[in-house]
Amino acid sequence: MPLTYLLFAVATLVTFGLCLGLGSVMVPISEWRTSQIIFGVRLPRVICAGLVGASLSISGAAMQGLLKNPLADGTTLGVSAGASVGAVAAIALGITIPGLPFAGTTIFASLFAFLSLAVILALSYRLDRGLSTDTIILIGVIFSMFAASITSVLITYAGEKAKNIVHWTLGSLASQSYANMWLLLVTGAVFGGILLLHAKELNAFAVGEENARNVGVSVWRVKLTVLIAVSIQIGVCVSVSGSIGFVGLVVPHMVRMITGPNHKRLMPGAIFGGAIFLMLCDLAARTLFSPRELPIGVVTSLVGAVLFIRIFFAKRTVK
Amino acid sequence: MLKAENIKVEYFGRAIADSVSFEAAPGERIMIVGPNGAGKSTVVRAITGAVPYSGKITLGEQDLRKMKAVQTARKIGVLTQNNFVGYAFSVEEVVRLGRYAYRDTNSLAVDEALARVGLSDIRGQSVLTLSGGELQRTFLAQVFAQNPEILILDEPTNHLDITYQKRIFELLDEWLEIPGKTLIAVVHDLSLAKIYGTRVLLMNNGKIVADGKPEEALSPENLTAVYGMDVGEYMKTLLGVW
Fold first, then answer.
1. B213 DSSP β-pair partners
2. Where are the alpha helices (DSSP H) in A128-262?
């Protein structure tokens, strides 16, 4: 297994180098050290793409284990949609914090991700005191639809900002800063670390929630911890890059085919896999129709949907 | 010693189990039987903490509600009827989860548990490829690796054919030879209760209506009162077919 991680690390580094070197403007390697394009534009963008991909992917892997549902991710839980409402509201109302670009959006997105989680859990609890995973997913899907309609209302009344908001909701990694990189790095290290520390518990949940309780997992505590860690990561990612679908859904499936379902191996693999996937999608978004740039969410959805169907067909054939 | 006092479980204001009290001493094999909706599974789900309840359940001197999940798991193991696994974990990975409460990587306990249920040879195989009987033996091995004092079974052989049913109960029989082990099993099959139980709790409408040795609790009068039919006559008819 260490060889697998070594290969993952090498693949990540190669992808990173490739994404740094390729773009609408080709910069010779000898000039990279002094290039504003490389250090001022591409480096923070590629790092942010990798970090967002890694965060969304590990969050998806954790959700799929926790809810014992291969279709679960931040979108299914309703947290992405909730975070989008917060971010869109911040953009539409022009909420900013002086000296901290995007901080208003980040705070609003994270806050709404939290609030969404609180509402989803409160409603689930009212329906089902045991907070069963099926109830959480059901409420999450309904909440997503509700949040999407609020986002639409905000866009309708956003006036001139509507175009920017629509562009943002499709996902974008353009104009990334080193401040965003640090934000993603710190939240990823803290909350991704929390998820990694719960690998054993997530294995038990992936076998079954009742089984997890029976072997001694404190199901309530673990569920809340994982859901909060996932929500914060998704909230921060949404605030930085907009709504990017399919990463948390598809990448864990692909990685699981290499590492197996054990979260001790799956989640570290998902970190590498998510980073590679989103860096490559971002590369495609900014180079395929250069100088025009495709929204990253469109690319991940196109690639993700095709991959997802292939994975399911492959599994069916194996069976 | 497990002691349940005045257990009551309600769903939306309706009592599914009510005034349920019993004690389970080491070495006992208690079979909980009764018709559908009698509250059998609800009682054991209350013991495992899967449903909220009023009343008190103690293990030794400790209140189960006040015990941490890992403490409870070291004392009580549970084998249920629905053990569908959605991901391709290996047999060994599922069995190893039985050691979660001990925070250790005691491979010996896992090896012994796998050997006990006869799955050592396929320990690396994905659980998705197992038959229903093999999967249930995998979870039985998990419980054995957990090494609890009290084993709770909630209709563990419901979907299994009689060969696997027999095998599961033989494995349980062997395990129960270890001193100090207690079995509390919810079963539908009255014959199983009679053969394997040292004591039977007969339930109806959420309450225990008979508690005693199998032949006493499963007397023709009790069974007729609970099932609304002559159970003995029906069983004879079934056996007569063979």
1. none
2. 133-156, 162-169, 178-187, 193-197, 199-207, 209-215, 219-241, 247-259
CA geometry: angle A77, A79, A84, nearest 5 deg: 140
Answer whether A71's CB lies under 8 Å from A249's CB: yes
- For an interface test with A, give the residue of B10, B97, B152 to mutate (most A CBs within 10 A): B97
DSSP assignment of chain B, as one string? -EEEEEEEEEETTEEEEEEEEEEE-TT-EEEEE-STTSSHHHHHHHHTTSS--EEEEEETTEEGGGS-HHHHHHHEEEE-S-----S--BHHHHHHGGGGGGTS--HHHHHHHHHHHT-GGGTTSBGGGS-HHHHHHHHHHHHHHH--SEEEEESTTTTS-HHHHHHHHHHHHHHTTSTT-EEEEE-S-HHHHHHH-SEEEEEETTEEEEEESHHHHT-HHHHHHHHSS-HHHHHHHHHHH-
Q: Nearest-CA neighbor of B139 among A240, A131, A204?
A: A204
Contact yes or no for A23/A279 (Cβ under 8 A): no
Q: Are B240 and B195 in contact (CB under 8 A)?
A: no
Structure tokens given for B109: 């306990």
Residues facing B211 on adjacent strands: B201
What's the number of CA atoms in the CB half-sphere (13 Å) around residue A135? 15
A260 and chain B: CB distance < 8 Å anywhere? yes
- Cα distances from B151 to residues A90, A219, B84, in angstroms, run 55, 20, 20
Interface of B with A in 45-84 (CB under 8 A): 48-52, 68-74, 77-78, 80, 83-84
The domains located in chain A, with CATH, are 2-318 (1.10.3470.10)
Bridge partner list, B54: B8
| Torsion A296-A301-A302-A306 (CA) sign | positive
User: Which pTM was predicted?
Assistant: 0.86
Q: What is the pLDDT of residues A13-25, one digit of tens each?
A: 999 999 998 887 7
- Interchain contact, B69 vs A262, CB within 8 Å: no
Which one-letter amino acid corresponds to residue B98? G
Cβ–Cβ < 8 Å for B2, B56:
no
Mean pLDDT of the region A210-234: 90
Phi, psi (degrees; rounded to nearest 5) at B63: -75, 125
In tens, the pLDDT along B128-157 reads 999 888 898 899 999 999 999 999 998 877
Q: What is the DSSP letter of A32?
A: G
SS3 A306: helix
What is the rounded CA–CA span in Å between residue A19 and residue B218?
75
DSSP-derived secondary structure letter, A175: T
ipTM of the complex: 0.87
What is the nearest CA distance from A223 to chain B, expressed in angstroms? 14
Q: Are A86 and A110 in contact (CB under 8 A)?
A: yes
